[in-house]
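With this grant's support, we have settled on a layout for protein records. An illustrative entry appears below exactly as we store it:
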Amino acid sequence: MTKTMTASECKAKFLDVLDQVGSKGERIIVTRDGKPIAEIIPFVERPDSIIGALKGAVTMMGDIEEPTGEAWEAVGHCRSRRSS
């Protein structure tokens, strides 16, 4: 759920805002003169590396350097032209 509040309201209730964001997962959009200037969102722990984040998500099957589909046909076509 996303709430909107003015910067002055956010300043006056900042500790309550942090509680709403941290414990309830709410997102707060802060406005000044009716325009959004900031968004306060819950903190999400992220791994240091994208590689670590993908661990276990990818499975290699077979030879990853082996051409397939159109690439395989193109390789075969080139080889047959060389031997002619």
Q: What stands out?
A: The longest helix spans residues 69-83.
